[in-house]
Input
Amino acid sequence: MTESTGGSRDQGRELEKMKGNLIVGQSGGPTAVINSSLAGVIKAARKAGIKRVYGMHYGIEGFLQEDIIDLDEYFTTSHDLSMLKRTPSAFLGTCRYKLPAVEGHEDVYEKIFEILDKYNIEFFLYNGGNDSMDTIKMLSDYAAAHGKKQKFMGIPKTIDNDLPMTDHCPGYGSSAKYIATSMKEIIRDNESYGVSKPTICIVEIMGRHAGWLTATAALSKDVDCSGPDLIYLPEVPFDINSFVDKIRELAKVKKSVVVAVSEGLKTADGKFVCELGTVNDHVDAFGHKQLAGTAAYLANVVTQETGLKSRYIEFSSLQRCAAHLASRTDADEAYNVGFLAAKAAFEGHSGMMIAIEVKSREPYIVEYDMYDIHGIANVERKVPKNWITNGGTFVSDEYLDYVRPLIMGSLQPYTAAGVPIHMTLAKKKKRSSK
Amino acid sequence: MTESTGGSRDQGRELEKMKGNLIVGQSGGPTAVINSSLAGVIKAARKAGIKRVYGMHYGIEGFLQEDIIDLDEYFTTSHDLSMLKRTPSAFLGTCRYKLPAVEGHEDVYEKIFEILDKYNIEFFLYNGGNDSMDTIKMLSDYAAAHGKKQKFMGIPKTIDNDLPMTDHCPGYGSSAKYIATSMKEIIRDNESYGVSKPTICIVEIMGRHAGWLTATAALSKDVDCSGPDLIYLPEVPFDINSFVDKIRELAKVKKSVVVAVSEGLKTADGKFVCELGTVNDHVDAFGHKQLAGTAAYLANVVTQETGLKSRYIEFSSLQRCAAHLASRTDADEAYNVGFLAAKAAFEGHSGMMIAIEVKSREPYIVEYDMYDIHGIANVERKVPKNWITNGGTFVSDEYLDYVRPLIMGSLQPYTAAGVPIHMTLAKKKKRSSK
Output
């Protein structure tokens, strides 16, 4: 299946057969381009002549409470969809909710299909990561087993980039662009000082189990920037002593040392580094337990062990919501997987996820395919070991060739009075009454 | 004195008299547009026919070690200056160094003027905040008292916006644009969740003594964004109990509560909030003292006291180095104050700082003036009390009218392979050998 944004002659005939409505939900952590996928779904539905396009408010969790939005109320002009594409975070609201096993919870599934029937919904699109694809698996399996007419399609999305089958995940490229840009600016900032003691700066990047996001820090390296001196991914067990030794050596020859660390770093015995600082459940004078992140903890360790000046930076949710640094490539691909998931559902497919297939990295050429959801749901893809170099402290050129095309181009936000403007549900929110 | 970017007929005559060279230094915390001021100085020097333009490597601290850069080696084309303007952080390197009192430290001053004479430097430009202006004061006073020929001029710069005499400080507008944009994206992100418990997000913003930067969080408020629910500035003593009560009330009516706090919040008895978490010098199992910032501490307090889900975000150095979100207005003004400071020195002025005077906020019209450095050095300007509203938890419309023009327009970075590219000293660094 190849990318197609135009209509086809077959669509006219498809239309004849389609009577049902469509519902789309967003699930898991938001991204800068998750709403581009939503825009793609809406556009595909309009093209196919779907009567009503609904949105789940707060994903399947809200759907179970019949919290359903009529999206036709929001998107009447092409401007609306353009603005939606430039709006970060989940326009519909999101959730972290896993459907229970069917056995013993038949009532949950019956309720879901009751609501679907009530709104005459035939097409169910769900946009998320590994956990969210589980929802598509459970529902499509249930539908097949119970002779339900509904079609369920998954739309990939995660800044963690850890979905299998797809070359990469929509959302990853924009986070990568944010991290590469910010990392470069941080390195310049850290290099500003340096007459006397060197400054060690530890930057914490998201990714509990996979180091895809942390690896993007290497994109800041170029002729005008030394890049991070060390990059630590969760795929490699973290050794604090070796880390401190490396910092000590670097500080002998550099005034500015910048290190990228994944929030999910673990020691060889399986403990999260971020939990090492609180092993004894210390509380402060007010009885509050003090929690420190991985970077905060490591910066503290560096100063205590070496006497060097250190600081830490956490990109926190900025790395997933900075739509002002969205990658155009990423936004376009997010739109396409949304569009194509809807189109596939209209064509009768169910229990599948759209995937991106890279035919060529230079020039960058992609095609789209779809895969059985059973090989995707709950599976995590990690950074290949052979892409992790320098004894687990950097990434290879092969990785950089892989990631570079994903941050190309930019989708500039619309602005008013110097600040980006967004589409919001609150602005003209109307609940559907069927 | 009004803005002038063109040459004047008088400059030809000035040139006749000028034989000396120029040196420029950057000092204190870097900003996204500090290098625009440097570009302004270089351009003014070229226009005036100054023979050589030197830079201090790491400010006056490096200068004292005769660490001097020949800037003519770096900037040969107009492209170079355009790129410099788009490069964040101190291109020359910076320092935090205060000159000692003359009495008892005559050797320091003699050394400075020896170096100045050695390089035939007649014009000394220094770009920084309150502390940095002290350097201009000390040196111009010394020059006047000892009949030295050199002219010393100050160029304002600080994201803290706390310099007196000038309407606002170059650097502030770009940080404001970064904070307004990021705050809006964070609020959208925080609103994504919310089927079950509300999420409280505390965002920490720089400014130890003045709340100018924290106040910019209010710029995110518009028809499409509720803005931060509370804004706490260091100008108002912080009451933790009242803060927790307000969060509790907000969480009854809102699923997403976002609060902006200054890193410099102090309780009524003068203690920094960020130090409350460590009053008992708790150390972890490794003997490391755990430090938490203001927002981290408050997020912790919220969860402990209310059971609500909380998280914190620190903008850290991102808020001062995010050149990818530079304000065009800010960058232009930074350029102009640099240019005009040099021009004023050529005209014989010394011991002064260039200031921005806003003739009209709408339409936005500025003029430039200069003020005696004695009324500026070491003086901190705070946010006026009458601009702080809602019992110390928000800012007034008057403040918003004040700040809005400063974030208008954008100075887009040059990019390669999807990432901004910068001018760096390392790239073709040549030390001057006189």
Summary: Residues 172-191 of chain A form the longest helix (20 residues). The radius of gyration of chain A is 23 Å.
